[in-house]
Records
---
Amino acid sequence: MMIDRDRKRLLRQQAEARRSALPESERRVKSETICRGAIRYLAEEPALLSGGRALFVYLPFRTELDVSPLMQWGWSRGIPVAVPRTNTLSKEMEPVIISSMEEVELSGPWGIREPKAECPRLQELDQIGCIVMPGLAFDDQRRRLGYGGGYYDRFLAGFERQCLPLPVRIALAFDVQIIPEVPEEKHDYRVDVLITESVMIR
């Protein structure tokens, strides 16, 4: 287990270095391309976000892929868009509905943007139709290497505790974030669809 953790730590450092090495202008263009791919996928699977089900998406920070074009697409179609609010004590997160980026502030832990306090919490987990999961690295088996906090794995485990089906999980990543193999532990959740600027894996 310690070997896996050491390996994960090294892979995280390497993946973040590769992503950070992309020029900002290149990240912006590729982010837009990848978001268009995600929009095409969601448009082809309209049942995922039908009936008022929400799109749960992260708020990017540092050199993460900018998912704001996907959020704007959701708002323009009347799709509820939820983002995480984290509790650093319990190491859990809850989905909170926002209707624009004006409802986001820079008060979250680690410099991550979070919804303002007055934004409403999404009451039931089964109101989520699709989750866009962040990550540092992925492989062609759709394994995901997160940041090590376990927030998303614990969040998804909540569905299973309530005997709810898991929502479709998609990941948007740059090609440089794809590695030969991500170490996987039993509590890790894979994504269903992985979209980069050059490929869609499902």
Note: The chain has a mean pLDDT of 93.
---
Amino acid sequence: MNKLFVLIPLAASMCFGARIGVLKNTGSCPGEQVLIDLDVEDSNNHTGVKNKTDPNPPGITLGSHAKFTYCVLNVNSLTRVPYSYFVLRLGNKCPTGSYAFSHHHDTEDSRNRNGHSGNISPSVVNSNATLEYCYVPKNDSSKVKYPVDIKYGVFSRGSSSISKIAHSEIFIDDEDSNNSNSDEFHFSASDLVSQDIDHSLQYPEAQAIYNFMMDIYSLLYSSPDDLHNTTYHVIKWTGTANDLKKSSVVEESVPMVAAVPTAPAVKGLNRSLVSVELKSAGDVKVSVVGINGAVIANVTEKNLQPGDHQIKWNSGMIPSGRYIVKIEQNGMVDAKNVILK
């Protein structure tokens, strides 16, 4: 399976509202509603609720299809709570406090009946589905028990220390043959240094990227080694509104903001070349970093023009394995998780 990891800054710290989708739990949506319908594996289909703690997940119906119903909200920020969670991204950027990523479902090859209703952009649903999300890392010191109104659900494992949260484990049986599920991460490495990580590390960005990816994997898969199907974790609040301390501020009429410029992109790595794509001219610095945060190599190229480039580097006696390739240009950063053979 080919997994591509692209990290692009989405101006998450800007103060404008962002359009998101939260799973519909109770009542009707206050405004716009969108539906995503995935026609998953027809043969030997095991789609269903694996964890029977809550057999009725918010906004999700399962069978030969997996149908997700979202209420659309405009918010300035997403509240951090003592557990990580994510929501559907429905605009060019994620709200403050969250980071964008996408998950690609390789669904049924024959007689495919995927579909959607409403404006789900930037997600794309056709013969397969690429769904865009905003991820919020946990904050152990937060006193907020639940990040949204009780009318909504979010993708999360929740916290065993907080009562009145019901957790569902949703198994999506994606296409068995020629499976090409994959994930892309759109957050900037430099943004992650401010998170709750070990700042004694020499290269905290690399460790933060790794920690974020592993946490998102825990919300999407049964294990990092089994990526051919999807296991969504979903929670909802089972108490009353009075049980909750007011958390996220929902604003229904916040103006949207245009997309930010595209960052340079790392396309690939082999023993002699780093492939990159540039959207603007300027000096470029490329770093190859180990998962443990150690910098293996640094290469600087001057005055490169927009377009595809092959940058030479010497892998020497570096062992095969997983590395992070980071590119910096004009104040923008991109990184890609790669396998060096």
Note: Residues 18-243 form one domain.
---
Amino acid sequence: MSEVQTSPCVPQVKAFFDEPTNTFSYVVRDPDSNACAIIDSVLDFDYASGSTDVRSADEIIAYVRDNDLSVEWILETHVHADHLSAAPYLHQALGGKTGIGAFITVVQDTFGKAFNAGSEFVHDGSQFDHLFEEGDRFNIGNLEGYVLHTPGHTPACLTYVIGNAAFVGDTLFMPDYGTARCDFPGGDARTLFRSIKKVLSLPNETRIFLCHDYKAPNRDEYCHETSVLEQRQHNVHVHEGIMEDEFVRMRTERDDTLEMPRLILPSVQVNMRAGEMPPAEDNGQVYLKVPINLFK
């Protein structure tokens, strides 16, 4: 795990791994205060039974409380399609403002229609406390962060640059695994290539923290941290010398072979609502929808 260093521009980062969804969540702390942010949290969900659990979120809550931290932000890099967000549960327990990219409105419009969410579901991003745009700045105690809009995987994808660390969501994976898929609604391989180039224009020593790892062949351990230099030199999809058209062709052909993520249907319905479930129906029961033959 990436841990403690003591410079104002080097945040302390604690990683939490949810193996069922291959997701890394992070607590990012200002080394000079007790201020912190939580990035890309997980609500445990069993699709077969429709049951939720908060054990992953409780692990984060315990860490925050054990270290006497104060949560200022609960951030999402994008609307995840592979796990449900625990943001509302964390917000209730720890406070903090929720944030996501301003293009969440595009995602909400697309999937609000796909799931026939109805008039109760507004498409203006108001479910979140703050909508970030390219270049926006924010603070975690004395740490200053800023936002890169890095679409391609989804229209709303962000990279949060905090000190010498960049939290890239699904845009990049470990160098031996490559890059994010681009075949979801609103995704685009050419846009992703340009977003990745934006990330890789950061200083070589910038630490890159990933949202997922799937262990490439011949690697035994899960990994969550790499660097701009390592990505430039060794990423199997976008290392230096790979041209845009070459990447687009590779990414498109690869995406055509991929199955839909196991939890995409429940995840998107919940995450487009900032982690809240759809409203209960007239019998008091909450339901998630499965559109038939809509996503193939």
Note: The chain has seven helices and 14 strands.
